[in-house]
Amino acid sequence: MAEQSLTSRIGIDGGGTNCRFALVLDGTRYDLRRGGANASTDMAGTIATLRDGLSSLAQEAGVSIENLSSIPAHIGLAGVMDAAMGAEIAAQLPLRCVRVEDDRRTAMSGALGHSDGCVLGIGTGSFIGRRAAGVERVIGGWGLVLGDVASGAYLGRGLLSRILESADGLFPPSDLTQQVLAEIGSTAAIVSFAAQAAPADFARFAPRIIEAAHGGDPNARALVIDSAQQIAQRLRHLGWEAGEKIVPIGGLAPAYAPFLPPEMAENIGTPEGTSLDGALTLAATVTAT
């Protein structure tokens, strides 16, 4: 991404795996990382992580936390479901000029920079977004229970379902389904595993599914092609047009490129920057409330 403006600001990219903090102060950028945070599953832990990170950021810059209080800040945070939740978190932070939102817009801002285009945010979870003429729209990101189409968790859960359906005779088994069934032990063990599994537990199967799909495994290909079709359908729903760039972010998104329609695959681009860069960019738009 182009070098950030020297205006003082704070950006935070808060994900379930880790939180990244950045402070631009007097032309110098300070960065640090802390543990993961998710506002929906652990509000108290999330606030503690944010407060600890901000305190450490102040120490890194050699200033007091009070010196940070008036600096504009944008926080893109996993698990923030609406503006009320964002305001609740903001009220418990030592910042007066802060906006707290979910992490999708932060990711889009980093990936696209100041240009238009579409973003495929696909890792353990998923979302798809588009910016056209400066107007942004984002869909997905609702979690595995109700959404996260094409995500790593979605693929992994789909594989386990496919194994059970194969046991019912609906689909022929394949090398991948037989290998995973043997590893887990039985169909009953699959049901027991799934009842307790978190999205990340399902997602650990995703790299193997992608690899097997490239190798021609029919069940893996069926899962990946179905997800790619759903990605394409959502891109069209958002208004994607031929020639418009599509930027994959997240660990799994680039793997879908060969399975997308050719007119989409040929427009796959690279991110302009990171989600943390996006948070810093958005911080420049925050005003005191």
Brief overview, please?
The chain is an alpha/beta fold and about 290 residues long.
Protein described:
With 289 residues, this protein is an alpha/beta fold. It has two domains: 9-110 and 273-283, 2-Layer Sandwich (Nucleotidyltransferase, domain 5), CATH 3.30.420.40; 116-270, Nucleotidyltransferase, domain 5, CATH 3.30.420.40. 43% of the residues lie in helices and 19% in strands. It has twelve helices and nine strands. It has helices at 43-61, 65-68, 83-90, 104-112, 152-167, 175-184, 187-196, 199-203, 206-214, 218-237, 262-265, 275-283; strands at 9-14, 18-25, 28-35, 73-77, 98-101, 117-122, 126-132, 135-140, 246-249. The strands form two sheets. Strands 3-2-1-4-5 form a five-stranded mixed beta sheet, with helices on both faces. The protein has a four-stranded mixed beta sheet with strand order 8-7-6-9, sandwiched between helices. α4 (104-112) packs across α12 and α5 (152-167) packs across α10. The longest helix is centred in the last third of the chain and has 20 residues, at 218-237. It is globular. The two termini are 29 Å apart. 45% of the residues are buried. Residues 1-6 have low confidence and may be disordered.
Shape: globular
The assigned CATH architecture of the largest domain is: 2-Layer Sandwich
Helix content: 40-55%
Strand composition percent: 15-25%
